[in-house]
Amino acid sequence: MTAIRRWVLVSACVFALAACQQQESPEEVREDVAEKQREGAESVTDAREDVRETAADARKDVAEAVREGDSEDVVDAQAEGTRDLADARYQESVARAEADYKVALELCDGLPVEQQPSCEQSAERSYEAAKDAAEVLRKTRTEAADVAQDEYD
């Protein structure tokens, strides 16, 4: 590699790193935040629709089991619906957490460079806490369905 190519490569890397570590203007932050909010709202709306569809399917399955008159099938349908709904609600919560996280990261870009790492770490901690809480709820709901089903058997 010639000295000129090496210098160009090193310069490009330095400029790229410098660009990543700059405070964005308020206008850039507003635009980026608005974009992430729109994307996040779309993801959360999709997840909410999945929750509604899952709940409707569960009600339909339970109603069908009731019509057939087999109480064991009713309990199984209720338990399965509860588990499916717990999963759908978990996905909704994670979609909301991801949306909030992405917005928070964009807001961090508007801070002075020296404050950005701690802001990003705080956003990451909030995101992880929200996912952990969603997982606890999913596990609790799933276990409740399992217990109800086991008690019947």
What key attributes describe this structure?
single chain; 153 residues; mainly alpha; 89% helix; 0% strand; elongated
Describe the structure in your own words.
Helix content is 89%, strand content 0%. It is mainly alpha-helical and 153 residues long. Helix 3 (71-108) packs antiparallel against helix 4. The longest helix has 43 residues, at 26-68. It starts with a helix and ends with a helix.
What does the main sheet amount to?
none
Round the Cα radius of gyration to an integer and report it.
24 Å
β-strand amount: under 5%
Helix amount: over 70%
**Oligomeric state of this protein:** single chain
| Shape verdict | elongated
What is the overall number of helices?
4
What is the H/E string?
Answer: HHHH
Rounded average pLDDT: 90
The helix/strand class is mainly alpha
Runs with pLDDT <50, length 5+?
A: 12-18
Q: What gap, in angstroms, lies between the N and C termini?
A: 74 Å
Count of distinct strands: 0
